[in-house]
Amino acid sequence: MSAASRAEAPAFVATTKAGRITDFVDARVGGSGILREFGRKVFPDHWSFMFGEVALYSFVILLLSGTFLTFFFDPSMAETHYAGSYLPMKNVEMSVAYSSSLNISFDIRGGLFMRQVHHWAALLFVASIGVHMLRVFFTGAFRKPREMNWVVGSVLLILAMAAGFTGYSLPDDLLSGNGLRIIDGVIKSIPVVGTYISFFLFGGEFPGTAVIGRLYTLHILLVPALILLMIVLHLFMVVVHKHTQYPGPGRNDGNVVGYPLGPVYAAKAGGFFFIVFGVIALMAAFFTINPIWNYGPYDPSPVSAGTQPDWYIGFVDGALRLMPGVIGNFHFEYVIFGHTLTLNVLLPALVPAGILFTVMFMYPWIESWVTKDTREHHVLDRPRNAPTRTAIGVAGFVWYCVMWAAAGSDLIATNFHVSLNDVTYWLRTLFFVGPIIAFIVAKRVALALQRKDREIALHGRETGRIVRLPHGEFIEVHAPLDEYKRYKLVGFESPAPLPAVPNDHGVVTRKEKRRAFLSRWFFEDRVAPATPAELEAAHGHHGPAVEAAEESKSLSH
Amino acid sequence: MKALSQKRRHPLAVIALLLMGLLVTGGLYAVATTVNQAKASTTSYSANDSAEGKKLFQANCATCHGMGAGGTKDAPSLVGVGAAAVDFQVGTGRMPMQMNGPQAAEKPAQFNDQQTQQLSAYVASLGAGPAVPEAGLLDEKGDAAKGGELFRVNCAMCHNAAAAGGALTRGKFAPALAGVSGQHIYEAMVSGPQNMPVFSDTNVSPEGKRDIITFLKQIESNGSPGGADLGSLGPVSEGLFVWIAGLGVIIAFTIWLTSRTS
Q1: Any residues with CB less than 8 A from the CB of A521 and at least 6 apart, and which?
Q2: Which of A12, A91, A420, B99 gets the highest tally of CB atoms within 10 A of its CB?
Q3: A198 pLDDT exceeds 50?
Q4: What is the pLDDT of residues A139-183, one digit of tens each?
Q5: pLDDT at site A541
Q6: What residue of A is the nearest CA neighbor of B175?
Q7: In this complex, do A294 and B242 lie within 8 Å of one another by their Cβ atoms?
Q8: pLDDT above 70: residue A2
């Protein structure tokens, strides 16, 4: 284009002041292009799609409240005597970190509220990440092309736990100090290098005078920065992949049915931020969290009853509690070449968490290897339509919950008036048996729900109306489903097991045999969706009889 | 001197020496144990109290503890447990015991103050033991901060740092301490009821015990500065609350926000 033609084009002149400013900015950064692109992005609408948002908003609230706390918190482990206004601590010897945490709670205006906002938001942050991941897992949203985003999300879960744990330890109170001591014990149980890592981390023998300052740097600098980076990656991939959707009429792997971001979703999401903020603010205003003044300053000698980590570390603590010190005459502690190997700490602390996270990271690839499914999936599975995956998920969840419950074994014992030993024995049994029972039950429930769906698709909904036909037969009237509802019940894939196939050299490898075995395990129990022919046959069978009844009784529905 | 050295081979010299040694060690031991014993004031009981107490004891306690409180296979001897133990066990309703179990549970007291005092007088008359503390130790005017430190070092591992109670092995437990009178707390420390160890006066001085009671009463009357305390049970109740109440409310909102479409 020549300069002349550009000059000829009628220049847009905004009439209002706001319009002129908007035009000025738009002409320089191209905001309208971005808005056109993002504003038209369509998102499907379902309540279970909003947990990621809850996590994001909790993180924003964490950044805001955390910034406030940094203004007043001093991460020094220097000794001081408390001189603040909480009388039961008057003149008690403590670290500057604990003293400044008490000051935030009692002497800074709004400090206690902000502390509680920060801590409740942290618990909600990890909880919403957990629920979000469960939703993604059970609906199969991790399948191609979203495997990488599943991994980024899993990294976010670990980072969130790291952020939580480093923050939990900062006030240097008795409770968090005990938690750090357990971590120190776990680190020291790592063969050979454990002691060195512990000394490096704590700057000498536990507890030392360095660890709070170091955790503070991690907590306010490195971990949040990594979380932010991962969130950016996560959201970027959401934009690239587009959002998944539940199955329904008119929805397929090539489209997204929903509302555009602007204006509906922008308004909803903006409003939802304030709802999450409001819920957290109300919790912080009315419910105590981490009353550090109850616990006292950290001192390595006392350990309070009811010492637990925050919920997201609970499953590791629970696994440690479940591990027996000795079984009969079998000991778990050995001295090899002068190094102590403490399996009764090392095994429970690292193995269950290791298995859980390894399977979590690998799962998308494990499943696609077994099922040989390399297609893109944008339409979600209803959990019942993937019975084995659902059962695997429930088994893992139950396993996690058994360890989680074990972290509160002492409180289960006192509050339900049962013996602590019995609670431990039961949980040890459930640690092994629970996932197996859960797998079987969940799979049977999923299959039963599929059969129910099939039954409804074929024969309609039971109305509870009993009709007597002219020749004396009683039948129950089944109301046929409308097509939209029926689509939901029949429109899913139900793959059959894939037998082992020979490779290019005509050899069935051992790996392929294993895959075939797993494929059979994955798909052998299945309820196929009703086919159009079956639907036709079912309607043909029922149609005239019911219609006759309808006419004779002049019923309608 | 010469006379003594001449008599050292006397047949009775060994016996004399042995007697002397026994007297010294026994005397030292006696001094040491009385020092170690919780010395609270000795509330003076009249002979009448003791006699009435004996009648009450024989009617209500002797089935298990024996007619002379000497103990049976079902219950221990009460000779030497002192008035403090009786006042605690009977005053908090733990005795007479409702049923056999991992430990005697607290229940509404079966005897009034006068009867409890009479029972205490009777048991105290059987042998010396820790007495009911004097009022000066229960005035709750000690040093709460010091009491807090003592509590965290000596008591918190069973009773929880916020005195909310905790679990012990095989169905036994350390109870929550809110609402327990200062006198009963003191008596529990000196008599060591059930699974609780005895905190003698050399272990925690009477002033220290007064500080502990002051601390407990102060945190009880302070309430919870941060709002509802969720049972003071720590992260477990906080976690339950955020999962059930926090996420529950948020899920309700998400359902509301998406209810118009889909």
Answers
A1: A388
A2: A420
A3: yes
A4: 999 998 999 999 999 999 999 999 999 999 999 999 999 999 999
A5: 55
A6: A414
A7: no
A8: no
Distances (CA, A) of B242 to A64, A294, A312, A387, B257: 20, 21, 12, 30, 21
Is the CB of B217 inside 8 Å of chain A's CB atoms?
Answer: no
DSSP-derived secondary structure for A82-123: --SS-GGGTT-EEEHHHHHHHHHHHTSTTHHHHHHHHHHHHH
pLDDT of A326 above 50: yes
Q: Give the start-to-end residue ranges of the domains of chain B.
A: 38-131, 133-227
pTM score, whole prediction: 0.87
- Classify domain B133-227 by CATH architecture: Orthogonal Bundle (1.10)
Q: DSSP characters for A475-510?
A: EEEEEPPPHHHHHHHH-S--PPP------TTS---H
Nearest CA in chain A to B158: A305
- Given the structure tokens 């040989």, which residue do they identify? A372
Specify whether the CB–CB gap between A456 and A489 falls below 8 A.
Answer: yes
- Integer distance in angstroms from the first to the last C-alpha of chain A? 67
Angle between helix A111-138 and A387-406 (nearest 10): 150
Which of B167, B225, B228 is opposite residue A286, by nearest beta carbon?
A: B228
Look at A127 and B246 and tell me if their CB atoms are within 8 Å.
yes
ipTM of this complex: 0.88
Which residues of chain B lie closer than 8 angstroms to A306, CB-CB? 160-161, 164, 166, 233-234, 236
Cβ neighbours of A535 (radius 10 Å): 15
In terms of Cβ atoms closer than 10 Å to its own Cβ (0-12, 13-18, 19+), residue B151 is buried
What is d(CA B230, CA B227) in angstroms, rounded to the nearest whole number? Answer: 9
Q: What is the interface size between A and B, counted as CB pairs within 8 Å?
A: 204
Structure tokens at B214: 């002051």
The string of DSSP letters for A445-474 reads: HHHHHHHHHHHHHHH-EEEEEEEE-TTS-E
Distance CA B82, CA B129 (A): 4
User: Which sign, positive or negative, has the C-alpha torsion B2, B6, B8, B11?
Assistant: negative
- pLDDT higher than 50, residue A553: no
Q: Integer distance in angstroms from the first to the last C-alpha of chain B?
A: 113
Distance CA A384, CA A454 (A): 12
CA dist., res. A61 & res. B114, Å (int) = 60
The DSSP call for residue A128 is: H
Neighbours of B237 (CB within 10 A): 22
Instruction: Determine the length of chain A.
Output: 557
Same fold, B38-131 and B133-227: yes
User: For every residue of chain B, which 3-state class applies, written as one string?
Assistant: CHHHHHHHHCHHHHHHHHHHHHHHHHHHHHHHHHHHCCCCCCCCCCHHHHHHHHHHHHHHCHHHHCCCCCCCCCCCCCCCCHHHHHHHHHHCCCCCCCCCCCCCCCCCCCCCHHHHHHHHHHHHHHCCCCCCCCHHHHCCCCCHHHHHHHHHHHCHHHHCCCCCCEECCCCCEECCCCCCCHHHHHHHHHHCCCCCCCCCCCCCCHHHHHHHHHHHHHHHHHCCCCCECHHHCCHHHHHHHHHHHHHHHHHHHHHHHCCCCC
CATH class entry, domain B38-131: mainly alpha
How close B114 comes to chain A (CA, Å)? 33
| DSSP summary character for residue A375 | S
Of A288, A59, A64, A125, the residue nearest B247 (C-alpha): A125
CA dihedral A96, A99, A105, A107 (to 10 degrees): -100
**In the structure encoding, which two tokens stand for residue A28, read together?**
């320089």
Give per-residue pLDDT as tens, B93-124.
998 888 888 888 888 999 998 899 999 999 98
**Alpha carbon of A467 to those of A44, A461, A548, A554, B176: distances in Å?**
42, 15, 10, 11, 64
